[in-house]
Amino acid sequence: MDIEHLADMANDIANFFESELGKEEAHKGIRLHISRYWDPRMRRAIIDHVRQHGDGGLRPSVAAAVRGLPEPPAVT
Amino acid sequence: MHSLLHHDHGTPAASGQPVTLFIDGAQVTVPEGTSIMRAAAVAGGAIPKLCATDTLRPYGSCRLCLVEVEGQRGYPASCTTLVAPGMKVRTESDKLAQIRRGVVELYLTDHPQDCRECKAGVRCELHQMAEQLGVKEPRYGLDGASHQCAKIDDSNPYFSFDPAACIVCSRCVRACGEVQGTFALTIDGRGFASKVVASQDEGFMESECVSCGACVESCPTGALTEKSMQQIGMPEAVVNTTCAYCGVGCSFDAEVKGQEVVRMVPSRAGKANRGHACVKGRFAYTYATHEDRIRTPMIRKKITDPWTPVSWEEAFAYAASEFRRIQEKYGRASVGGITSSRCTNEETYLVQKLVRAALGTNNVDTCARVCLSPTGYGLKSTMGESAGTQAFDSIMQSDVVMIIGANPNEGHPVFGSRLKRRLRDGARLIVADPRETEIVRSPHIQADFHLQLRPGTNVALINSLAHVVVTEGLVNEAFVAARCEKEPFERWRRFVAEPRNSPEAMESVTGVPARLVRGAARLYATGGNGAIYYGLGVTEHSQGSTMVMGIANLAMATGNLGREGVGVNPLRGQNNVQGSCDMGSFPHELPGYRHISDDTVRGEFNGAWGVELDSEPGLRIPNMLEAALDGSFKALYVQGEDPAQSDPNTQHVTAGLAAMECVVVQDIFLNETAKYAHVLFPGSTFLEKDGTFTNSERRISRVRKIMEPLAGLADWEVTIRFAKALGYEMNYSHPSEIMDEIARLTPTFAGVTYEKIDREGSIQWPCNAEAPLGTPTMHVGEFVRGKGKFFITEYIPTREKANARFPLLLTTGRVLTQYNVGAQTRRTPNSLWYDEDRLEIHPQDAEDRGVVTGDWVGVTSRAGETVLRADVTDRVAAGVVYTTFHFPESGANVITTENSDWATNCPEYKVTAVQVVKVQQPSAWQKRFQEQHEQQMKFLKAAQGETHG
Ligand code: SF4
Ligand code: SF4
Ligand code: FES
What we know:
The complex is a heterodimer.
Chain A: H1 3-21, H2 26-37, H3 40-53, H4 60-67
Helix pairs in contact in A: 1-2, 2-4
Chain B: E1 18-23, E2 26-31, H1 36-42, E3 68-69, E4 88-90, H2 94-108, H3 116-119, H4 125-132, E5 159-161, H5 171-180, E6 185-188, E7 195-198, H6 214-218, E8 224-226, H7 227-232, E9 237-242, E10 251-257, E11 260-266, H8 279-283, E12 298-299, E13 308-309, H9 312-330, E14 335-339, H10 345-358, E15 364-366, H11 373-382, E16 400-404, H12 408-411, H13 413-424, E17 428-432, E18 441-442, E19 445-446, E20 449-451, H14 458-471, H15 477-483, H16 486-497, H17 503-510, H18 514-526, E21 530-534, H19 536-539, H20 544-557, E22 567-570, H21 577-582, E23 589-590, E24 594-595, H22 599-609, H23 621-629, E25 635-639, H24 643-646, H25 650-658, E26 662-667, E27 679-682, E28 691-694, E29 699-703, H26 715-725, H27 735-745, H28 754-760, E30 762-764, E31 808-813, E32 838-841, H29 843-848, E33 856-860, E34 865-872, E35 880-884, H30 892-895, E36 912-918, H31 924-948
Bound molecules: iron/sulfur cluster (SF4) (2 copies) and FE2/S2 (inorganic) cluster.
């Protein structure tokens, strides 16, 4: 998956939750949104990105949300 | 001519208190406000008439319907005289017969003995009256001055006008005004010289006529007749069905002769359309028998190979073996499917079932992804249900209507006509749209406020409207206190009240003068029943879901929910967008919008389908295409959809499709996506199958089979056979059995059966034990989620900004006569009205570029370039350009980008930064497109030659 595009998508999600839940709590909404709407390979890609590059290109709330995501199942 | 089934009551129904009178000695009770004519018809009698018909207000011109009323002098016209308590009416007497015969004789002196309607095998109403009154020959002879040499107007492809048969009863003129709201017809001249003319007597085709057919249906003689009637002759049977075009979902009585449709007549009993239709539904059905129809299954190894026609069995076996091979090699989740909003509920349900149960993945999505998916997200979050709140009838109770990002008179024409009618009767209108659409200004219509905002600034606008409501004390406090969650409301109230959300602060963002925003907000909040209708101009943005929430917030804050006349209503683009979403087409949701991770719900489906469903959400359409490019998605089953034309950033889409190893397309034509397919399953049109569609108002209506599928199988049968080839049995012998399963597994559909739909005509879901006959108005008394929830809707500018390189903003839409990707309407005479996509550009922007109407212009964005012909007009504001996407070769989506709604990935079609320059030749993409098109058409022709030869 194109990580730049995934990062844009995640940052857009963060825009909403940062205003809805506040900067401190936004990561919870983002995490839930990503786990409910992104298929496992998309989650895998963004988790790997954060592991390798830290916050690179992501809003801090997104990076925090991604760190809280459970390991997605392997795509079989 | 009316539908064969129609019994005309002469004047419209009234709804007052009961009034009892006596007609020819018999006691009759009807509502106050009813005409004597209608009362007599209700009682089973029929007073002779010509100028009256029950879709139109009485006019009183022909004087054929005269009656005698005890205690009154003279002979009042029964169509214009209302009933009164105790009134005693005589409808027959020697004197009345004498007067009526005189009237008919006069008409007959200037009417062909055998008018065209009579030739087609039905007696026209004038000849029926003559027969009924025993008039054989007109007493005055036929030698006087007449109109019998007048020229027939044949210009419209669907109907013609023969002035010789016209009796100047004005029914057509009134139908055009009252029913359609176009006012294209007038009576020109006086007395004997008077005649019906279209616009300035320029013929129907050149006039303002939009070919809705209302005048043709209301004409009592053969003056206005459908050409199909003249060609095919009288229909022999009537089959009720539902239009397969837009989300209004008009009900039609298809009049047929054998397996051929003679006419489509909008059904008077149809609750979505109340007897009206548009040019698409009424006339543009001939694509069903077009020579381009795919009539045999075909396969090929590579997309650069010619097609091999095969039997259905071979096609299923090949597709199934490819899908299984690919899953074996790349994993279970390397395949997926796309369901269609043009197919029936039952077919859509089966495709998602095939993907989830037979292929074992949740990679299923639908075209609603690219149009209205934010509606589901936004309305479910705020109110608890992913659907509009009202029935279309509700508009008749509205006092203020706000139309946001929708062009109902082109996109949802029958609703547009009803809206115009309500506006002419006094409702007020607010329109938020970057373009001056027909509803902003047209005959007898003038919006009170046109908020002509810059594309991409919807949320800024809705927040500033809300700001006015909150800061000027216009909140419906009682409603909010009783019906909404307190804390989120208070937060929202504080948020929108912030000065940065004021109309004055937002004016520089939206471009809308603050005083207009203030005026519009006051009107909506205080003008009585306020109803919001919106379209893709709301959803197809990077903040589409936020905007839907913003709309819901505004409606809740003003108490405009939970009764007739108010509400929040998405106007769905395609006939079955609502249905395809309801049927579990989204990768994260099972039928009835229940999340796939819900163990209880999944358990029910596991039990019913005999499988273990995956609990993880699957890929959405844009994600599938991305995954195809990175090599993890390899096979796609597409039913009745055309992402290669309809989805944004065409070159990205086609690269994704080309990267797949097996694309199976099921469609009636070789569409753009089929050019990238390895297997073609011939699809069937709505005339060839049974099923149901669900329209924008959640109304489930029957689609009934009129002819055999051209390739032998209806779409639902194809999916069953494909599933079987994959090793998964689906045992249904009729679509009604599929609906029975849907009802068993989906709480909002629990009470739906074909038998009930047949009985009731149609049903609006939720239909269950609490609402056995369905639910016209949602959220009455309580929201589906309990208390309504306000959300903070911060305006975030899209990253698609106009800049020095791309200084203009492109937005897209559609026209009345063409439908979406045009696959159907381009193959009908509708193309006579619109045969190419054009680029609308403001005179100032055109002048800066030396462009005049008709010039070829290159339109370039960061995604690509295409070339269109320019149309210089001030319908668009300076800085904005606009085009449609009905023709593949114009490549409107070559320019649109992959930006999308944050919550749902619905593409941001409505905002693309572009540059426009005058050019002399097609773009590089268009040249490549043309080459590929010619090659693929050659393959198709060769394959068809093989089967036919
Ligand atoms: S077809 Fe419709 S728009 Fe055209 S003249 Fe008749 S009623 Fe008016
Ligand atoms: S296209 Fe829409 S408005 Fe026109 S007839 Fe069909 S459903 Fe009705
Ligand atoms: S029908 Fe009443 S005047 Fe014509």
